[in-house]
Amino acid sequence: MTSSNDASARAAGPYRAQGSLKGRTILMSGGSRGIGLAIALRAARDGANIVLMAKTGEPHPKLEGTVHTAAAQLEAAGGQALALVGDVRNDGDVAAAVAAAVERFGGIDAVVNNASAIDLSGTDDVDMKRYDLMQDINVRGTFLLSKLALPALRESGRGHILTLSPPLNLDPKWAGMHLAYTMAKYGMSLTTLGLAEELKDDGVLVNSLWPCTLIDTAAIRNMPGGDRMVQAARGPEIMADAAHAILSGGMAGGGALSGNFYTDEQVLRAAGVTDFSPYSLGAPEDQLVPDIFL
Questions:
Q1: How far is residue 278's CA from residue 77's CA, in Å, rounded to a whole number?
Q2: What does 73-137 look like in DSSP terms, one character per residue?
Q3: Using 50, 70 and 90 to split pLDDT, how confident is the model at 231?
């Protein structure tokens, strides 16, 4: 799942990068904590430029980290960072983020659609404000950020849009379990499917990435029983390594480079990882909780 809490500082995992993001400019929605921050930190260690647009400009009473503390971590890790307080639901904020990235770093090489809202309520129980929030952040936000960044991505010559969303699995059980959330996440995935086709002659790659197991995130910890659930989860570093492999070209030679719905394990196996246990929070591999939609 893609909402997330702060990235943990674990030892280097089993992934050995074949490419680098040095000098590349990444524009990310969200990213002040969790999976997004872990992805940004991995890129920063290469010397990437990272533009973070997130709503958390001031400390949150329940969640650690702000866009400013995240930027400080990125610079300490070796990257260049630009912290922008903004809402992916706001057209002006997104346009300003794109313009600021181009002005500060001269262009945009990758967009990471990380911002996401989650509510697993059934149809009877879901509040329509939460429904609208998920549609606005997950679907509209992903579409808007991707859309407004397209001119810069085309100019890059190696542009990439990476969205944290699941494969389009039309098994009815996923819609039946949490229809509102499923619609919102699949809307993100449809953006990947459509843009990959639309941009296939423009030199811009478009892919999605999703975890095979539950990931330790604030969204999970804040659910009833969440502290117990994350004991059978992996840390966000597995998604960071997988995103790095995709964005740095580590999937080259593995089939089509655009329009894929990758899982973290699929990407890292292709990059040579055979032991995933270092990513676990301690539970044996056969006791990890599978993520939804797979």
A1: 21
A2: HHHHTT-EEEEEE--TT-HHHHHHHHHHHHHHHSS-SEEEE---------TTT--HHHHHHHIII
A3: confident
Sign of torsion, CA 257 263 265 268? positive
Active site residue 131: no
Question: What 3-state class would DSSP assign to 233?
Answer: coil
CA atoms within 13 A on the CB side of 65: 25
E strands, 135-213, are 159-163, 204-210
Lookup result for tokens 């995709």: 246
Which tens digit of pLDDT belongs to each residue from 171-218? 999 999 999 999 999 999 999 999 999 999 999 999 999 999 999 987
Choose the catalytic residue: 15, 131, 181, 186: 181
Pairing, β 204-210 against β 159-163: parallel
- Structure tokens of 177? 């379990």
Q: What is the mean pLDDT of residues 151-158?
A: 96
pLDDT digits (tens, 9 = 90+) for 236-290: 999 999 999 999 987 655 567 999 999 999 999 999 999 999 999 889 999 999 9
Enter the tokens of residue 167: 């494969």
